[in-house]
């Protein structure tokens, strides 16, 4: 490895001024930590424009081309000796192109969830082939949960075990105001509005509740996405407007979460949910499914409740039991996040992945 200390971070991630989330805070903290170690860092983002939160970062962002294409078009020769990728598909020809540039040390962080019942056979075969062709161009694979790391090996080959690591997501717990009193019947959804997030199941589950229980329930949905119009239509069809309030995007979740009794996340696929970490940091327990890395953070009955993905009846029964007062989470659920899933630990572990140069 040469004496240069220049890092390129390539992220298929959209920067939004109305959404300053856990990953945005990680990017800024990681940039600071790299600079303290003497590294120069350039950031490449997809489909976005720069805003004030990233003022101190050297950012290349465009609404027209992907982060990968920006990197390939703006860089030549041997400028970077370390390249880190986030939210990119693994084991593609892009990684071969990276190595051809300057033989950088390549770290690929996998944030991508897998389908509930796995990939179809054709996709599994294709992934194995891609692993054989392109895994050699990635020096370190990183899963954001044990679930993710296990699937890297399953998708691309067990021979990658020695260069596959786990670095859990973490958040800046200091920005979250903690719930101190019980907010009876107030629930929050904070999610991209797409089918895999299962919010349509939540609406169906609420529709199954007795009229008496419906009157006790208020659900605020924060987020936007391609399913938003259809979700609103279902709410109208079932006449559930008193129960559901679509609030759009917000950058104020750290202050808002404290106002709710539970976070609802009826998802079908997840890697390691930052929304869950954020909710727990605000001392708000979580109702979710045992998919992806969710069981690695949620202990049923201790800091939340788990129900089978897609099981609308089970979710409805769980909601009814909670509204009856028969189920409750009374302890402080924020301590686990403060101790084990904090932003500093996440940043330190990512810094430790960098090779000695």
TrEMBL record:
One GO MF annotation is: glycosyltransferase activity
> Which PANTHER family does this one have?
GLYCOSYLTRANSFERASE
The residues covered by the Glycosyltransferase subfamily 4-like N-terminal domain are 79-174
Q: Which UniProt keywords apply?
A: Glycosyltransferase, Transferase
Domain Glycosyl transferase family, by residue range, is 186-326
Give the EC number. 2.4.-.-
What is the scientific name of the source organism? Answer: Autumnicola musiva
By its UniProt entry, which Pfam families does this protein fall under? Glyco_transf_4 (PF13439), Glycos_transf_1 (PF00534)
Keyword Amino-acid biosynthesis annotated:
no
The identity of this protein, by name, is: Glycosyltransferase family 4 protein
Q: Where are the transmembrane segments?
A: none
């Amino acid at each position: 490895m040469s004496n240069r200390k220049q890092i390129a971070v390539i992220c298929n991630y959209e920067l939004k001024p109305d959404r300053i989330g856990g990953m945005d805070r990680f990017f800024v903290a990681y940039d600071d930590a790299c600079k303290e170690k003497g590294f120069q860092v350039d950031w490449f983002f997809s489909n976005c424009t720069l805003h004030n939160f990233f003022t101190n970062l050297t950012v290349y962002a465009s609404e027209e081309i992907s982060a990968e294409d920006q990197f390939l078009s703006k860089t030549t020769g041997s400028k970077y000796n370390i390249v880190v990728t986030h939210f990119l598909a693994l084991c593609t020809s892009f990684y071969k192109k990276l190595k051809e540039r300057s033989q950088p040390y390549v770290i690929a962080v996998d944030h991508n969830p897998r389908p509930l019942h796995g990939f179809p056979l054709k996709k599994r075969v294709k992934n194995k082939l891609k692993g054989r062709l392109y895994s050699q161009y990635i020096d370190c694979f990183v899963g954001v949960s044990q679930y993710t790391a296990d699937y890297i090996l399953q998708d691309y080959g067990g021979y990658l075990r020695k260069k596959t690591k786990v670095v859990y997501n973490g958040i800046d717990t200091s920005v979250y105001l903690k719930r101190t009193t019980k907010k009876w019947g107030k629930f929050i959804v904070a999610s991209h509005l797409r089918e895999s997030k299962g919010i349509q199941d939540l609406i169906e589950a609420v529709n199954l509740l007795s009229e008496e229980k419906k009157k006790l329930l208020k659900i605020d949905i924060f987020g936007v996405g391609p399913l938003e119009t259809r979700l609103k239509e279902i709410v109208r069809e079932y006449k559930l407007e008193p129960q559901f309030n679509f609030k759009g995007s917000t950058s104020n979740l750290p202050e808002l979460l404290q106002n709710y009794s539970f976070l609802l996340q009826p998802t079908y696929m997840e890697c390691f949910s930052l929304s869950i970490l954020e909710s727990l940091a605000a001392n708000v327990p979580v109702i979710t499914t045992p998919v992806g890395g969710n069981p690695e953070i949620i202990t049923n009955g201790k800091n939340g409740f788990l129900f089978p993905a897609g099981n609308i009846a089970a979710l409805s029964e769980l909601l009814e039991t909670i509204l009856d007062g028969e189920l409750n989470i009374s302890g402080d659920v924020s301590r686990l996040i403060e101790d084990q899933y904090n932003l500093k630990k996440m940043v330190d572990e990512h810094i430790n992945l960098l090779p000695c140069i």
